[in-house]
Amino acid sequence: MANEFDRYNDTETIERDMSKKVKVGIIGTGWIAEAHVTRYQKMQDVEIVALADIVPGKAEKFAKAFGVEGARIYNSDIELLDSEKDLDAVSICTYNVQHAPCAIHALEHGVNVMLEKPFTVTLDEAIEVMRAEKKSGKILTIGFQPRMSQNMQMIKKIVDSGELGKVYYLQAGGGRRHGIPTPYGTSFIAKDTGGVGAVGDIGAYSIDMLMQAVGYPKPLTVSGYTSAYFGTDPNYYSSHPEYAKAFEVDDFSAAFVRLEGDIILDFRISWAMNMDTAGDALILGTKGGLRIPSTECWNGEFTRPLTVYRDICGQNMQYEVPLLPSCDFFYEKLRSFIDAVKTGGGATVPTSQIIYNQAIIDGIVKSAEIGREIEITIPEV
Length: 381
Ligand SMILES: NC(=O)c1ccc[n+]([C@@H]2O[C@H](COP(=O)([O-])OP(=O)(O)OC[C@H]3O[C@@H](n4cnc5c(N)ncnc54)[C@H](O)[C@@H]3O)[C@@H](O)[C@H]2O)c1
Prior knowledge:
binds nicotinamide-adenine-dinucleotide; Dihydrodipicolinate Reductase, domain 2; Rossmann fold; globular
């Protein structure tokens, strides 16, 4: 069964008008901006015309390091958007708390947006961004590159085939034993930059993997838990014990989420824990079950195959789904965005789905704060 991503698994078959160049700006020139720039540089029909970072000199340095000296340099997203009159698109590569303001500014300037994950920090912010998106009529896609993995897509294909029957239970797995992301400082772990911790950072991927497989049912209630026993412990860090003081978000999170259609999402994610993995991800249906091996859900790589469990002729049977070839998911995510900009197509990872992802993250944080289950209310856009 084909799905909307299949055409990106063989990029050679797509005909593109390469003479039409898409003018792109990069907002935020930190760690992930490198992945954006190096992929755009492989596309003959993309020109990186502008870079912005609020840290003085950072964008210039980045331009030199990655061979984009021709790009104009700005000191903020607003400066870039106000000055560049001919811009088609931006990649927003800022830390999480700046996702919403930068996306709103870009959409208000009539610019298409590739917004890094997580969508935003809070549900309210995400709603504001969606309102700006609606008003602008521009493309806004969220940067979940695992969606481009054929193995990830197979999860949805199996559910859609009816092989599992009615799905009633989703269990998130994976997580890191020792992986608080501090490669270039504290932007993931401080409240005023990261906003949320593991639950927003890699939890967003884990939620997306399962939710997109079952068609993104609306979340109804959530009972959430968050903790920060590792990030706040100076002994956790081999070289920067001072990060313990800067740590203001969660490093572990768990939740029980009720979804429309009588489906339960049993969720856990971790940047740090005394365990190698929180287990495999599971999808249980009335006719079959699917085991998704504990995997790097944030990059889409699978090292072990999916397993389907079914009863056939009264016998408990199980079979493995052969692993499908990998590709450069990051390239494909940006390629699909540029193609949408050129053709006026829809977002590959639309906000209409990811608003539910954000609602779950927001619900987990709020429920954890008050220590009880809460109802999830999603305002109209
Ligand atoms: N898709 C992926 O695989 C992946 C991987 C890593 C990070 N990310 C996401 O990318 C985002 C950035 O992560 P990072 O590790 O690059 O962070 P980072 O802290 O290294 O870089 C963010 C940069 O944005 C700049 N910035 C902030 N506000 C700005 C503004 N208004 N205008 C211009 N520049 C601004 C900061 O000064 C900083 O240089 C995060 O939201 C993260 O979740 C995605």
